[in-house]
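Exercise 7.
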Amino acid sequence: MRSLPPPPPPPPTPTPLPTSQTKQVSPDQIVISNQTIKQHSQESDAPNYVTTKSIRPPPPKLRQLPFQRTNPTIWFAAVLCLIFSLVLIFFGVATLIIFLGIKPRNPTFDIPNANLNAVYFDSPECFNGDLTLLANITNPNKKIDVRFESLDVELFFSDRIISTQSIQPFTQRRRESRLESLHFISSLVFLPRDLGVNLKRQVQGNRVKYNVRGTFKVRVTMGLFHLSYWLHSRCQIEMTGPPNGVLVARNCITKR
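Solution. The predicted structure, written as tokens, is:
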């Protein structure tokens, strides 16, 4: 009797796959699968040929200028300017100190006496006159000598000049006075008709008014320092009528 072959072994039992645990997700959360994350990582690793990056140019390099020596002529001129400025400051301060210490005063001009010798008309507008006045010029300073370098005295009737005289330059010591006689002669001087009528009326009224103006250039000496300036004197005099007219009133002012 023939035996039967043994039966084939039973197939292996398949191993069950691990079951993924399901997790409950709330409706407000977003779930991203692993496949999506891997795909995104692969895309980020891939080279990007589309995106361009702007490259800023490098900042310019600062060039250091080569050292240059100053010209000796410029240094010499600068030193001269400095010395000159210091000398000016020194003399300015010294002059101010001397000026405040001495307190200089302006010379004065006065008319202590005058004589009206003649006033007549050759025609209604042609005037002739003869006037002599005594000018007193005084230096009131106690410590300063003055020198008059230019002296011009003018005689006016109203605002019309009728004669002029000049005085020779001279020097005055401290507290010194000087008298100068000035003779004014007017010959055929034109006067407007209204001024001629006014002068005739004053002569008839025995009160004739004149204006005297003096312009002087004065130089003051203070040791080694010298100062020059102009003085202007204004005098109004009133006299009796000619031929023996005398001074009855005066008012004189002298200022720079």
